[in-house]
Amino acid sequence: MNRPVLRYGIVGTGMMGLEHVRSLSAVPGAEVVALADPDGGSLARALEAAPPGVAAFADAGELVEAGGVDVVVVASPNHTHREVLEHVWGRPVHVLVEKPMATTLDDACAVARRASRHGGIVWVGLEYRYMPAVAALLDEVRGGAVGRVRMVAVREHRFPFLVKVGNWNRFNRYTGGTLVEKCCHFFDLMNALTAARPLRVFASGGQDVNHLGESYDGERPDVLDNAFVVVEYPDGVRASLDLCMFAEGSRFEQQLSVVGDRGKVEALLPGFMEVARGRCSELVVGSRGEGWPVETREVGPDPTVGYEGFHHGSTYLEHLALRRAIVAGERPTVSVDDGLWSVAAGLAAQQSIAEGRCVELSELLGAQCSGGAWRV
Ligand SMILES: NC(=O)c1ccc[n+]([C@@H]2O[C@H](COP(=O)([O-])OP(=O)(O)OC[C@H]3O[C@@H](n4cnc5c(N)ncnc54)[C@H](O)[C@@H]3O)[C@@H](O)[C@H]2O)c1
What we know:
Layout: E1 6-11, H1 15-26, E2 30-36, H2 40-49, E3 55-57, H3 60-66, E4 71-74, H4 81-86, E5 94-98, H5 105-115, E6 122-125, H6 132-142, E7 149-157, H7 172-175, H8 178-181, H9 184-194, E8 200-206, E9 226-232, E10 238-244, E11 254-260, E12 263-269, H10 272-276, E13 281-287, E14 294-299, H11 314-328, H12 336-355, E15 359-360, H13 361-365, E16 369-370, E17 373-374
Parallel strand pairs: 1-2, 1-4, 2-3, 4-5, 5-6, 7-10
Antiparallel strand pairs: 7-11, 8-9, 8-15, 9-10, 11-12, 12-13, 13-14, 16-17
Bound molecules: nicotinamide-adenine-dinucleotide.
Nicotinamide-adenine-dinucleotide (NAD) binds next to α1.
């Protein structure tokens, strides 16, 4: 059977852009044909990883204008997503925009509104959903293993933020803040696991260990490195996040637990150093039934994954899902609505810390947010 080949253009060819180039090189029926980045060093590294003959541009506008691309992947810094997407709207292309979709609510709402009128698929790169252990957790919960979901707990204990091109990830104004930049993944998972939208957020956090001695043009980084966040959903469902970014020596980098009225499911994911030492993810399924049974399964590397990358093959698996949706003419699995709510929860948590109070999502999303639904 003939497999349609989709042609991809990557905008922003730093660490994540490279991850997309390498993942797409392993996806059947995908071809990277164009790259765009204003930084010559990033572009040169991506050209080395890309197939021969790839076109290179200094900016997104030139790449889109040149045509010959079916899918544009936006992997530039967070604060540039809205502006880069302006080149794409109305063109006959599908889009994958990296998380977080935007850094402010104004930008996130503008992107969501514009995306609703775009002809092609607009998919948000909340790829943690595709980590095999997380996907297995979602399947168990959606399959009824815990009964009615009552509590979700997420812990991420990891290494500090890496160095980025131009050090954009050292400042809230470029990232949206740690709870947007990093934790939109976790707010998205909470929303997916509870099948709901958050009502209010209370958080406590600080910058206590990381980047304190750094200075960029005389300015000290202002990004949080630890926080506790509590999120309330309709019907008394609650979720919590425990984030620590100076916890390199952790057995598991992410731990997710979902408890319902009938049981509990946990996903335990090792960080990349533990993966290098041969450690696998684990899925633990427990029940309140007779004898309180607990079953633990190892979730090892999936042999069908063409490129493992940094996140247990999730970039590759995300691209398989996006490609399937494009070919089948389906709606995106991870939509701009999901992107918007994950950003809004992160911004609410940042505001809660800044103001020392509980923040209602309706304060942020206003009249557009009603009963957990957001209307474009
Ligand atoms: N899905 C994930 O889990 C994941 C992981 C890491 C990063 N990301 C996201 O990917 C994006 C890029 O992050 P990164 O880690 O690759 O950063 P990076 O600094 O390594 O790379 C960003 C690149 O974008 C380029 N750039 C800057 N402005 C641009 C513009 N206007 N148009 C085109 N290119 C531009 C820079 O020159 C740089 O090469 C961010 O949104 C980040 O949050 C997602």
